[in-house]
Amino acid sequence: MRIPQRLIGGAVAAALVTQLTACGTLFWPDRRGQIEGRIDPVVAALDAIGILFYVIPGLIAFGVDFATGAIYLNDGKTAQVSPEKLQPAVGRDGKVDNLKLQAILESELGRSLPLDDPRLIQHKGSVEQLAMYGLKPAA
Question: Its domain of life (predicted)?
Fold first, then answer.
């Protein structure tokens, strides 16, 4: 009799954990960091199902997906800029000047990117990543 109770408890715990992590963030982590776009109906439906079963975790899932941008569909466009062209935006102390970076990206990509947007997720790099691109750390 004790084993079925553990299985049911484990299933309920797993369902709650998956709802707390948010569907879009869990299933499509590469979408995180998007600021706007079309809403993915699959992610919205999965989050809505979470609201049907567990109201608070479902609302949290929607909030997390909107906050991280994982609920938005990818527009299918990608862009790359060579590291050498980005070097003028990096100061001697290793800090990035957002105004210079924005000007470089706008001239290279032809698009204005909102680098001062508070929803923008910035990732910190490492010395190994710089070496991979053939760059030497200045600091």
Answer: Bacteria
Q: Are residues 93 and 128 in the same domain?
A: yes
Residue 113 lies in a domain: yes
Structure tokens at 106: 């706008």
CB neighbours of 125 closer than 8 A, spacing ≥ 6?
none
Give residue 99's domain range: 83-132
pLDDT in tens, the chain (139 residues): 577 888 888 888 776 665 556 777 778 777 777 777 888 888 888 888 878 877 877 888 888 888 888 888 877 666 677 778 888 888 777 777 888 888 888 888 777 777 777 767 666 767 677 677 766 665 5
Give the chain's count of helices (H) and strands (E). 7, 0
Gyration radius of the chain over CA positions: 21
Using an 8 Å Cβ cutoff, are 51 and 20 in contact? no
Contact 65, 43 (CB under 8 A): yes
Question: For residue 29, what are its two tokens?
Answer: 């982590």
